Amino acid sequence: MATLPILVTGGTGTLGRHVVRHLFDRGVPVRVASRRPAPAGPQPHEWATVDYRSGAGLTAAVEGTSAVVHCATNMVRGEQELARTVLAAAKDADCPHVVYISIVGVDRHPLPYYRGKLAAERVVADSGVGWTVLRATQFHDLVYRILSALAGPPVLVLPKGVRVQPVDSGEVAARLAELATGSPCGRVPDLGGPEIRELADLARAYLDTFGRGRRIVNLPLAGRSYRAYREGLHLTPERSDGRVTFEEFLAQRR
């Protein structure tokens, strides 16, 4: 009997493309859900063009799958509404398992995007569909993009006293692929990067790697979100299971 495919929403994104690769490595057929039409030419996996805003095409994309790995994100419209649309499609298609990627600290941190992820977790848990939720710390990719943007001017200005615990998106994807091929298990242990580092320290590593001479200035900020970052509410020191360091990630980028 043929193995049913697993649908990956956001399957062409930073995380989703790694999930697709890891599922292939496990010999699992994959169906990629994307807002974009399928690329020209033969594809190694099934493709489903969907509209996450209206839900058009989502139920058909989920039908006949053994699980959905929900990696698509929408910072503008909101994580809660996006999750509601995907979970409604999963329920309509009788999908037995939805795996959702969330962020460490969403239940403690006041950042609006984090609150949206927490609300999305509740949508997943209350959907009536078998579910698994994995929380991870920030990806190396995100820290890299932030530092790349900030390093444009001669002075690189950073929020003072902020630490991060970046994790490799490929390692998170491997865990999601593992969870998707198993049974629903609710909230699973968090996944954190191997090191908790000062943001300024990571900035120096970035500048050294790419030979960019910039002076780093740390400025104190105000507000609840900044205070939460300073207090480390987005960190999980007891779950530093990641292996790839930020310097190793940068070496790959270089």
Automatic annotation (TrEMBL):
Residues 10-141 form the NAD(P)-binding domain. It comes from the Bacteria. Coiled coil: none annotated. InterPro entries: ComplexI_NDUFA9_subunit, NAD(P)-bd_dom, NAD(P)-bd_dom_sf. This is SDR family oxidoreductase. It comes from Prauserella endophytica.
